[in-house]
Amino acid sequence: MEMRRQITGFSNPTVKALRQLRDKKHRKREGKFLAEGLRLLTDARECGHIPEVLVLATTRDPHPLLAELEAEVAAAGGEIIETAPDILSKITGKDNPQAVAGVFAEFDTSLASLDRSAADIWLVGQAVRDPGNLGTMLRTGDAIGAGGLILIDDCADPFSVEAVRASMGAVFTQTIAQASWDEFHPWLRSGAGQLVAASLRDAQPYRSAPYTAPCFVMVGNESRGLPEDYELACDLRVTMPMKGRADSLNAAVAAAVLGYEVLAGL
Amino acid sequence: MEMRRQITGFSNPTVKALRQLRDKKHRKREGKFLAEGLRLLTDARECGHIPEVLVLATTRDPHPLLAELEAEVAAAGGEIIETAPDILSKITGKDNPQAVAGVFAEFDTSLASLDRSAADIWLVGQAVRDPGNLGTMLRTGDAIGAGGLILIDDCADPFSVEAVRASMGAVFTQTIAQASWDEFHPWLRSGAGQLVAASLRDAQPYRSAPYTAPCFVMVGNESRGLPEDYELACDLRVTMPMKGRADSLNAAVAAAVLGYEVLAGL
């Protein structure tokens, strides 16, 4: 199609601008983020998210879904760029780049816009620092039918390339909210909601614990876990077996094991 | 102590040799791997693994466990090196290095040396490519009381810095075996063992499925899942709810959700 713009140089300013979206400061200033891969972009499209910029590798194979995507981007007035795979690799920071990437506007992540009645389960991450863990929590949330992921305090950026990649498209299907504890806690108590966390304090076994919807399943920071007062603010504290030397699970794993148990128990 | 060797230069050959342990080729040639952090090295020590080389940051705080570790390394004839934190950072590839790192001899990972009667649960990863996922599976294995992790076909290296880090010490507590499917499958059938995988083929719900010990919980490659013939070779295929758009979980998450269910069901 004639509307595709060809970019051949690494030093092209558009390449530089796209590359900078790997950097949080630039993402926040621009209000945009990058997502790669036809599957992910198709998920996005089916959830109503059309990229503002579509970047195609010259080496891509033709695909009907890609043609549909390109047509929709063009129809929405978006920009379509065609470039060499090594330039696409430089943009996404991935050695073996996908054949397509898109630039999306970041979503509204205010707690006020979250409708808690939209789902029975919500995941809550407190100071989760690893973008891969955040993305994996989004992916798990999608699988268990959660409404979304609420990020409390100083979490990694859910719109980082790493988080988007690990989410496997769930960044587009899950509602994402960001808030401090001092915003989240009063919001939670302003309506129905059971706050649940894994804990060693006055806790009951996680299997067959009395989960109720909407259930907010909270996991804490990778190194420090949850602050004590956050745990004490929970309606339900549960323990998972720890048969070995370790006293904790990976944050995304804990969210998943607990999330699947809540799904079975509701 | 006078036996500590001071290293002050980035170009020191010992620094170079230690740094090269981040590279798989060098690890395999040397038969050694790196692990960082006092907690991890203490776990190792309590499991009977003393580092051959102990690297201490000059900026470390004194700690009784560190003193004990240092004494044991010295008693075992190991080498003790003291160096600046930025050199330690260069060795481990981590921006904020731990105050201590150790070099360990790699373990025997032959299937023949694995005693299946030592535990009721074993995790099996097939072509798991992400070292973080491997390390997380080791960590989960420790938590559910698994005997260890069996790596089938072309997996990431469990002795990579990333896998060791993600294992949170479980690399020292879990037995690790590496084998091809053509080695693993006859070995499995040469004794008691139920092979279980998540699957969409002729599968039953994962909750309350008839798990029996020793139960081998297998997950497949991050992109492709398990080959069809591997799934068909399973004694039990189970499904986990997938309420959203995604049709799979992160490999380490799938292993954990299934592993915890097996633990509850045995």
From TrEMBL, chains A, B:
A Gene Ontology molecular function term for this protein is: RNA methyltransferase activity
List the protein's name. Answer: RNA methyltransferase
Q: Which GO terms describe its cellular component?
A: cytoplasm
Q: Which residues form a coiled coil?
A: none
**What highest taxon heads this organism's lineage?**
Bacteria
Q: Which Pfam families match?
A: MRM3-like_sub_bind, SpoU_methylase
UniProt keyword annotations, A-Z = Methyltransferase, Transferase
The RNA 2-O ribose methyltransferase substrate binding domain is annotated at 34-110
**Family as reported in the entry's similarity comment:** Belongs to the class IV-like SAM-binding methyltransferase superfamily. RNA methyltransferase TrmH family.
Q: Which SMART domains match?
A: SpoU_sub_bind
Q: Does the keyword Transferase apply?
A: yes
- The UniProt transmembrane annotation reads none
* Keyword Transport attributed: no
Could you give a single Gene Ontology term from the biological process aspect? RNA processing
Instruction: Give the SUPFAM superfamilies listed for this entry.
Output: alpha/beta knot, L30e-like
- Signal peptide boundaries: none
Q: Which organism is it from?
A: Qipengyuania marisflavi
